[in-house]
Please model this.
Amino acid sequence: MVLSSIDPALLLASLIVASTPILLAALGELVVERAGVLNLGVEGMMITGAICGFAMAVNTGSPVVGFVAAAAGGAILALLFALLTQLALANQVASGLALTLFGLGLSSLLGQGYVGIKPPPTTRLDLPVLSDLPFVGRVLFSHDLMVYVALALVALVWGLLKYTRAGLILRAVGENHEAAHALGYKVVRIRILAILFGGACAGLGGAYLSLVRVPQWTEGMTSGAGWIALALVVFASWKVGRVLLGAWLFGGVSVLQLNLQAAGVAIPVEYLSMSPYLITILVLVIMSADKSRAPGSLGRIFHASQ
Amino acid sequence: MTGDLLTVSGLTKAYPGVVANDAVSFAIREGEVHALLGENGAGKSTLVKMIYGLVKPDSGTMTLRGAPYAPHDPHAARLAGVAMVFQHFSLFDAMSVAENVALGMEKPPALRDLAARIRDVSETYGLPLDPDRTVGDLSAGERQRVEIIRCLLQEPRLLIMDEPTSVLTPQEVEILFQTLRKLTGEGVAILYISHKLEEIRALCDHATILRQGRNVGTCTPRETSARAMAELMVGSSFAAPERARGGKGEVLLEVSGLSVAAQGQFGTALHAISFAVQAGEVLGIGGVAGNGQDELLAVLSGEMPVAAETLRLKGATIGQHGPSQRRAMGLLTAPEERLGHAAAPDMSLTENAILTGAARENLVNRGFLKWDAAEAFARRIITGFDVRTPGPGTAARALSGGNLQKFVIGREVLQRPEVLVVNQPTWGVDAAAAAAIRQALLDLAAGGAAVICISQDLDELIEISDRFGALSEGRLSEIRPTQGLSVEEIGLMMGGAHGMEVAHV
Amino acid sequence: MLKLEKRPQPSQLWTWATPVLAVLITMVAGGALFAALGQDPVAAISTIFWQPLFGEFAFYYRPQLLIKGAPLVLIAIGLSLGFRAGIWNIGAEGQYIVGALAGAGVALAFYPAESALIFPLMVLAGAVGGWAWGMIPAVLKLRFGTNEILVSLMLVYVAEQLLAAMALGLMKNPEGRGFPGSRNLRQYDSAHNAELITGTGMHWGVVAALIAVIFAYVLLSRHLLGYHIRLAGQAPRAARFAGVRPARLVLFCLGTSGALAGLAGLFEVAGPAGQVSIDFNVGYGFTAIIVAFLGRLHPFGILLAGLLMALTYIGGELAQSNMGLPAAAIQLFQGMLLFFLLAVDLLTNYRIRLATKEVA
Model:
């Protein structure tokens, strides 16, 4: 039986790797949406991050510099979205689509000279003792730094939203921007910051794809990961913990279908490749019945008139 | 303690096309209740927003306890000891009471300590409130308590209250007044905004009256008649609506055993509502906001279809029909929210005339719009109801509240409804427009139609309705003839004091 | 300090001036971009916008304008109906692919029989294919409340995989010596969407696009359904109050835009493209989103915007071959256009004023 060639420990370990890009992107988008902004440009920011990170890592030889550049690239693209929606008061759906189209064009232009190059390897961070544990060691404790950064970010955002005043204010702005304005909070400023954070996270997620997961640069390499991240936020009902669960679910699906392809299961490759997208639709179907958790002001334009 | 706490001199603020405040000056003394009186659109809101730091004046100065006072944002105002209770609450539905309070404070303590302090203050001032409850589940009166407690926790010197009683039952108003008197006893000054004259006479020490952005007089309400204040406020007097008492006719609309589950997280469910309206009468339905008014209107308009036999129009079951069929059969409605519900803000008046008039005014021919007929209909509404606008091509959002409301009511009245249901027909409308709208409703009833007027304005309902019922938590009280009802009785019909049963058993 | 003031009503002038302004700003910014890439900006801009129309080889490029413009206009018209109603179909690319597959499937099923009925049948199949693909997000939205943006987009990736599966499997040319891709429909007379007038680029897709423009114009300006579409987009609550059934609009808008995108795909695969191949789709479904907005969601505006965008495709290819300008630069150029459009759109609804120094 071909399936026996799949090693469960390796499968779970690669699940965690596969889930990291969408985890990062979805976490950023969650913060943006909790602030009441719907940024559909995640795909564009991710792919911009992917090429920025790739190019900088190749040129400097340092993956760390690459990841920093990716975050910056994603944030700069997000800034365009912030200017459009927060200052020019443009429709958020249209602006998000524009961001994605723009990001796809920009990344393939920037990526001209980088096709077919190998990036410097991102070193694995072996943790003493822990990494040597049987099974658990391979699944959890022998990954690169970014996996742990992503998990730390999850914890950080969770704590920030739940326990801090900054988190309270962010949620207030997303819940009812008129009331937040009436109490004297700077709605636009807070939202711009949230959008920049979302862009940086998406950029990191993209760079993780091009520097670790794949690792190389190809045009349009995110192939819908940004959109899956958006679906993940809906799946998670705007809750941080559930984003993590959802990312692992999607990571699992994509790893499993890749393993099935490799194991030579008698289903054409194309149909297996459809599965992450079909699963996303399925999950949306299951999770969309309850809309009550969505932030009250999500997607609405704010202009402090009179 | 009789020095001036806040002085305002020459405050001016202009918006494109309108001067909201024109050199307004007045002073509030320490420990007094100072009324700011004026019609809708007189500039009261702009004035208090300047005091609270939300709007910057074009010119003019303020002093607080003798020192120059120019808050650049609400944080600065709060630090200076100025707090505000908003008319349209500045609350966050999905958050707890404690979180809502914390958001309105400059340096809130940790949530657990805050909860304890909320309990303390709510006991001291007789405003029961559970800090852990979700605000979206609270009644309007309880929501207001959240706002008041949020202010009190900061020990303000000046408390601004914008139309605080519009969401309260008469019993709750009495409790609020006790709280406010207790506060003034402690030296807190209150700036009390209202257009209800009797209330001001009962509560306030001084009153400043605004008309069209100008200070047109100051008076001592207890020594001034309501009539004199009304004339200052409005500038001229209006004939009270007249009614030609016709006889009542057959039952036109009958609602029986209407129950609807709550829509969405913070909607109100309707429970076993039954009533009937006859030709020639006005049925008034009162109640505090959020007790099922919007839901009742949605059920009657057809936006929320129900079981067929729940609603009967002239004997025919109509519960299953949508808005279009009901209109064709003679049941017309006008919702509370003008912009976005009764009218599309960015569309012209002609297009808005089609919104409900398409079938009855014959504006459509085999699916194709008759633009000329639609424009003619819009013109008829404009002239018939004295809508002040450059013409039918103007966008709805460019009209003032009163003019748009006249257009919306006129659009329905001119379609000769057999039953007309209106929700808050004069909300946020100036006195002249309000009088015209009430007259139109009375004339319609006199002409043989049945009118259901849902409103939170008790004076309005007492003035125009033949029979009166009240909605409370989705239930409709017994319906009684309006004549002879006392305010006390009406208050009890509205549910008395929500969530304060302990104090009033 | 600049300040925004909401206009009492949308400005008629700016409604039509903003797209022109956006194009001009994009030309300037694009010129700067090309300069940064080491090209002469004026030469690049003129290669893109002038050469195809009036240059030496204009006779070759002008027909291309119709060939590339027709699918863009056809798809954008469909999308604009939904965008007006607040129903966001962004999966036109997928509906385009499935329409092409359905239409080509009919042709390949009949091969090599010749009949005048085959082409009409293909057109029908193309429309139905696109319609069906568009109905998936519609039905899921109505039944389960899923977001049509995400579902329609996911279905693009599914359709791309389906296309690959077809090009490599079921529809592969048995006489193709193992090369991926179907038989060439241009060599199959009954199925070929040939030029109607030689040398003009005019094919049935162009005719369909023009009909769609007129149909959409009449619908939006004269018909109650069009009025309801506009109403639902501007004020959803008022639309329900007026008696509009949102479910019907969702079905109509997603169905119509799917069918039009499917038609565009069919006309492309049976004509200019000629065969089902892995990279048969070139992103018209996404570019049409830009076309729809650039045309202000107005049918005639979309017609002009579609031609302009077709020009950037043709001019872009020209600049690519003549000046070595990367293809991605054109893609970026198109993305910038949408950006600038959304930014200057502000002028339609707001007035910008120099705020006088605040006196506090």
